[in-house]
Design a protein that fits this description.
Rossmann fold
Length: 334
């Protein structure tokens, strides 16, 4: 892949953001974390149309308890079984928290009439694979096995996330399949972080120091090493790095939505993964957005293309949330 001319490729409304991201220090996990914290948005005030509630989900199989944050329409009837999204935040497997997704998830609840649980999964390197994946699995299995306890409709369950969170979602679908646990109605994968091997032209293109503001190969390498821990450089299972799964090993998975910008180091691995899902018979919807960088999906959107990204995500969720009989139910917005 040719060197990326950021000014020509990136949507104009994103350039100011790239100026801030260019100041990241990528020399260590500690400096990446400090840089990330410095550019993060302030906490979003609670929207009166949404009820937020933090809860601790009991651990399974000797694992620790997991904190989640619930988002539910404030006007939802008591006891209503709503469509459900389990959300896994991003952060390259080493960063991220519940607070940074409040605005995005409030808007999903308002637009779609669903309920969302955002998982406070454990981060590497303090907790390498499979810790974060096990946290996501604990919450998914608790909710899907006892939907009435959580006010969710068992026929309308979606698993999704962004970046590393989307990588966890893809890995969890593989694990659930292998365990014989039912798949979600949809795996919603927003620019998923899937491949530790640095094989694709798009991730290798972003290693020049002049590629200011883009998620960089140097940072990607450090974060994968932190997440994989003792597995780094050895045998890595697909549930840790789903891009390692062969097409014949992707059968039986939930329908997938993948969305990514074309100015993103992960674009090649995402396109390849979508192709292998489709080859395995998995219904797969892939969107590649010109001029959009890694992290471009947000609420509110900043540019025309990121606005389209958001609309496409909502449309995919709305389709997954339609009841089996096609009816409109209480709490559901068209």
């Amino acid at each position: 892949m040719a060197a990326i001319d950021v000014h020509k490729r990136v949507e104009p409304g994103t350039v100011a953001l790239l100026d801030r991201l260019a100041r990241w220090d990528l020399t260590s996990i500690a400096t990446i974390r400090r840089s990330y914290a410095a550019v993060g948005p302030p906490p979003a005030p609670e929207d009166p149309r949404v009820r937020r509630r933090d809860q601790v989900i009991p651990g399974m199989d000797g694992r620790p308890d997991v904190r989640v944050r619930w988002y539910r329409p404030a006007d939802a009837p008591a006891g209503a079984a709503l469509p459900f999204l389990l959300w896994l935040h991003g952060g390259a497997y080493i960063m991220g928290n519940l607070d940074e997704n409040d605005d995005r998830l409030d808007r999903m609840v308002i637009e779609l009439g669903c309920t969302v649980a955002s998982v406070d999964w454990r981060l590497a390197p303090e907790h390498p694979y499979p810790a974060g994946l096990e946290d996501a699995e604990t919450v998914w299995r608790r909710v899907s096995a006892n939907p009435a306890d959580f006010g969710v409709d068992p026929t309308r369950l979606v698993l999704g996330g962004a970046s590393a969170g989307a990588g966890l979602a893809a890995g969890l679908c593989l694990r659930l399949r292998d365990l014989g646990v039912p798949q979600p109605a949809l795996q919603l994968l927003i620019y998923p972080m899937l491949d530790d091997r640095e094989l694709t032209p798009s991730i290798r293109a972003i290693e020049d120091p002049g590629h200011w503001g883009l998620w960089h190969l140097r940072a990607n390498r450090l974060c994968w090493a932190a997440y994989l821990g003792s597995l780094d450089g050895g045998e890595v299972p697909p549930s840790a790095a789903p891009a390692r799964a062969r097409a014949e090993d992707l059968t039986g998975l939930a329908p997938a939505f993948l969305g990514i910008g074309d100015v993103d180091g992960f674009v090649d691995e995402n396109v390849a993964y979508a192709a292998r899902l489709s080859a395995a018979g998995v219904p797969t919807e892939l969107h590649v957005y010109p001029g959009v960088i890694h992290g471009g999906f947000g609420a509110p959107p900043r540019t025309p293309r990121t606005a389209q990204f958001l609309r496409d995500v909502y449309a995919a969720l709305a389709a997954a949330f339609v009841p089996a009989d096609g009816s409109q139910e209480a709490g559901e917005r068209p």
